[in-house]
Structures are given as structure tokens and as C-alpha cells.
Amino acid sequence: MAIAFVGLLCIQIFYMRNIVQIRYEQFAQGVRQSLIAVAIHLEQDEAKHFLEEDVRQVETSAVVAQYMGDPVPTLGGIKYSFITSTGLEADLTIKGGIGTISKLQSAPTGGLDAHYQNIQDSYRSRYLYQKGVLDDVIINIMSKASDRPITERADSARISIYLRQELDTLGLTVPFEFAVANYAGTVLYKSAEYKTNDIAKNNIFTQALFHNDLTGPNHFLKVYFPTTTDYIFSSISFMVPAFAFTFILLIIFVYTIIVAFRQKKLTEMKNDFINNMTHEFKTPISSISLAAQMLNDQSVRKSPAMLQQISTVITDETKRLRFQVEKVLQMSMFDRQKTTLKLDEIDANAAIYNIVNTFKLKVEKYGGSISANLDALDAIVTVDEMHFTNVIFNLLDNAVKYRSEERPLHLTVASRDLANERLEITVEDNGIGIRRDDLKKIFEKFYRVSTGNRHDVKGFGLGLAYVHKMITELHGEISVESELNVGTKFIIILPLSKN
């Protein structure tokens, strides 16, 4: 599943990257086409400027010639057709002037042949005139055009209009900024929002202006689009839902894996719990079964001492079995939303003192000792006495189970007053201690300190989880301090009774 998700994400990223690249290439191609068209428009405008200038000069000469009585070889309307350097055809019609047509209209009629002869002479004169004018225009453009200021040859207002028209024609309705620079890269003039320092070089589109000048192209039109990224990604917005659903599936996948590992760990703990529980139940059941078989023996029945011994064994093993069953039943408390508690005000010092006296025999059985330092002046707390007693017993029982074989066991139970009307109870031992990695998990259900498969110390892994739950239900806090091979200290903090 992980490999499949990684593959799916890689394919989507690769696919989106290709789409972005294609869209950007399409965008760049359209921009380049628009810049070429703008450059052509500027060249046509310059050619038109020189044509109009020459025609004005010819018309002025014609007026002077008419005034002086000389023949005037002009026409009333002249249409110029020429081909630009890029291969595009351009037409220019210039109206005005005094031409041969007016002469033809006023000339006396001399027959049809003379009329056609006059028409042929008129077209021949028109052709020669156009050729002469165009030759003069070309010479002027070659000699004078490059000397004109760039602000006259490429007006910023016309550049903006041409750019907008060409971009709109290709469907590129995006804002743009432009500047005109010389061959050294110095910006001669620019649009209002054009900022050289904020533009990446790969986002600038450059087009040479008037590249047919004798000295070569000396000026360049630079255009950039502030919203290029937004424009390109807006065209692939359909990919966003796919990525969103893939991301949701990835989150669900990760969550599923986490749950699976937790369930696996919980299953291992439960299996360990069942193994321990089976062993704990097997011993007392076997003892009771053996005692029952002995009672069937006639010789045993005739011996009062033997009957007393068998009765004692049955009673002890029954108590042991009942104790184990009660510990298993504690597990059901963890599945409840709220534990039912019978709260009473008790003196914690008195309760702890009684527990210590009861537990002293078990500690001394292993050659250890237990002491109580009950220094709290106010120890009245509101708790369930049975559960409170079980909490202290569980902590003391764990201390005995995990005692060190290298030194005599010593337990200390203490109490002291804290600020904000709180009582602190500590249970400290000099046992084997707890590793730092285990400290974060000891209050988890079914978790057992040291190794989960350790069977020399029997238990279900419920004791500390039960302790933590009870203290929490009593609105208290519990923490642990431990050092491996030194000892462990449990700290319980309970609120004092308000009464």
C-alpha cells in the first residue's frame, strides 16, 4: 500500500509538472508571437511616417509648380503597396495633391485612341511616381530612421495598445508591464509598475525593435507578467481535487497503519495477560483438585490433623483464586465511561498506617523492612476507601515483586502537606528500578515493566493502570521517579477535603 501511494503521488506530480510546463510553453509562444507582431506594427508605423513625410513634400512641390505654370506629374489619390522585411504585405493610401486625372477630365476629346493613350500615359506616370517616392522613402528610412529618438519611433502608448490587442487576440488576458532598453540593458523608459529588481530573468520576454537598422538592433522591448504563475496554475485547477482526495487517502492510510500497530501491540499484551492468567489460575485449581482427591482417601479421613491441613490448603487456595478473579474483574473498570465510587472523608494517615501494619508481615517474609513517615498535619481526603486502600496495596505489592536480589528490601511510605490544600503521598523502594523508556508506558493497560514476557514475576499488567485510573477519578495526580538498579518512587497528590 505504501509503494502504491508513493507511486500514485509521483505519477500525479509528474503529470502536473508536464501540464505546467506545456501551459507555460504555450503561454511563452503566444507572448513571443505578440511581441513580434508589436515590432512589425512599429516598423509599419515608421514606414508610414516617412511615406507621409515624402508625399507632403511632393504635394508642396506640386502646388509650387502649378503656381509657376509647370506641369505637375501627380495624381489625385495614390495607393502604395509594399512588402515588409518579414514578408507581410502592407498598403498605404495617401489622398490629396493635384494630379493628371483632373487634366484628363478637362482635356479636349480627340477620339477613342487618344483617350486610351492618355490613360496609358497616366498609369505610366503614376508608376514612375510611386517608384520614385518609394525609393526616396527607403533611402530616408535607411539613412534617417535610426537617428530618430526611440520615444518617437516606439511611443509607450502605442506599445501598450499594440501589446494589449495582440495578447487579447491570442486569449492571454493577463496584466503586463513593459520597458524599452538599449543594447547595454539600460532602461530608457518603462511602464508605471515595472520594477527591475523584483523580476526574475526567466520571467522576462525580450523582443528586438527595428532590427533592420544599418547599425543593427539597438533597442529592445522587455515585457513581464506579474501574474504568470497564477494564470498558469488557474488553468490546471482541475488537478486540485485529485491531490486533495489523494492527501485524504494518505492520511487515512497512515492512521490505519498506526491503528494496526497499536492493535498488534495490544494483542501481544492480551496474549501475555491470558498466559499469565492461565498460569495463575492453574496453580490454585490444581491444589484444590489434589486436596479433593485426598479427601476421598479413607486413611486421610481418619486423621484429624491431615483433615485440618487439607482444609487449610483448600481455604488458602480458594482465597488466592478469589483474589486473582477480583484482579481480572478490575479490567472491566477500564471499559466504563465513569467508575462508580463510594466517596467518604477519611484520614489518609490512619488508612496508610493500617495498610503498612498489614503489609509488614509480607515484607518481613522476604527479609525486608517498611517504615511510615506520616508528617502531614491535615490528611483528610474524600476518597473511596476500598479503592484507596487497593491503590496503596498495589504500589507496595509491586515494590515487593520487583525487589533487588543484591540488597535487603526497604519500603518507605510518607505523607506531607502541600500548598493549595493538597496532600502528597509517596511510596518509595530500593528495588531494581524502571528504565527510562518504560516510565512513559507503565500506566498503560496490560503493560509490564522490564519485559512483557517475564514470567518469574506473575501479574496481569493491570495494577498500575488501575492505580492511575483511580487517582484520576479522585481528581488527583500520580507520577513516578525511578533510576535503574537504584529504586523507584511513586508520588500521589490528592486534594484535601473542603469540609
Give an overview of the whole structure:
- The longest helix is centred in the N-terminal third of the chain and has 67 residues.
- It is rod-shaped, with a radius of gyration of 52 Å.
- A 5-stranded mixed beta sheet has the order 8-10-11-13-12, covered by helices on one side. Strands 4-3-6-5 form a 4-stranded antiparallel beta sheet, covered by helices on one side.
- Helices cover 54% and strands 17% of the residues.
Topology:
Elements: H1 2-68, E1 77-83, E2 89-95, H2 100-106, H3 112-144, H4 150-153, H5 156-169, E3 177-182, E4 187-190, E5 204-209, E6 219-224, H6 228-234, H7 239-295, H8 298-301, H9 304-329, E7 344-347, H10 348-365, E8 369-374, E9 380-383, H11 385-401, E10 410-418, E11 422-429, H12 436-439, H13 463-473, E12 477-483, E13 487-495
Helix pairs in contact: 1-3, 1-5, 1-7, 7-9, 10-11, 11-13
Produce a short descriptive summary.
The chain is of the alpha+beta class. It has helices at about 1-70, 100-105, 110-145, 150-155, 155-170, 230-235, 240-295, 300, 305-330, 350-365, 385-400, 435-440, 465-475, and strands at about 75-85, 90-95, 175-180, 185-190, 205-210, 220-225, 345, 370-375, 380-385, 410-420, 420-430, 475-485, 485-495.
Largest sheet, spatial ordering of strands: 8-10-11-13-12
Q: What is the rounded Rg?
A: 52 Å
* Proportion in helices: 40-55%
Contiguous uncertain segments of 5+ residues:
72-78, 94-109, 451-455
Number of strands: 13
What integer is the average pLDDT? 77
What profile does the largest beta sheet have?
5 strands, mixed
Going by helix content, strand content and strand pairing, the class is alpha+beta
Distance between the termini: 60 Å
- Share of residues in strands: 15-25%
The total of helices stands at: 13
Please trace the helix and strand order, writing H or E for each element: HEEHHHHEEEEHHHHEHEEHEEHHEE
